[in-house]
Amino acid sequence: MAKGILSCLKKRDLIQESGANAEALRRLGREYLDQNRPVEALEFFEATLDREALERLREKGLEDGDPFLYRQACKLLKTNPDPADWQKIGEKALVAGRYQQALAAFQAGADEARVKEIESLINEYYRHDESKKQPKS
Question: Which terminus, N or C, of the chain has the lesser number of Cβ atoms within 10 Å?
Fold first, then answer.
């Protein structure tokens, strides 16, 4: 197991432990973040209500085009997502070829034109994928 990576059961026990050491949880959150595991880091920062770390994760979601991370960080910070941010997230996800994430961002931003565009791309992808399958003999 890589440094700082815990089993899901150990992680759950640490986070849910009453009287858990907040600084130890923050340290583990930072380790997960250093290993580019932001969703797992989010769990530790949620447990400690570390606003600064949650804000960094919100920014990371925006920069990486990750609608889940952005939405969860906003929720934990009790802030409303900026509609313009959804556009940025959707565009970044689209450029990276992550169509489902782009779709989620454009849906959250209520951009119906972009939603239809992404749905069309997804449908085309699956049609193209089906055409590559070999018929059974």
Answer: C
Reply yes or no on whether the pLDDT at 137 is more than 50. no
How far apart, in whole angstroms, are the C-alpha atoms of residue 69 and residue 112?
A: 22
Q: Is the pLDDT of residue 134 over 70?
A: no
Phi, psi of 18 (to 5 degrees): -70, 140
What does the angle CA 62 – CA 65 – CA 66 come to, to the nearest 5 degrees?
90
- Domains of the chain with bracketed CATH: 16-131 (1.25.40)
Q: What is the 3-state secondary structure (H, E, C) of 38-88?
A: HHHHHHHHHHHCCHHHHHHHHHHHHHHCCHHHHHHHHHHHCCCCCHHHHHH
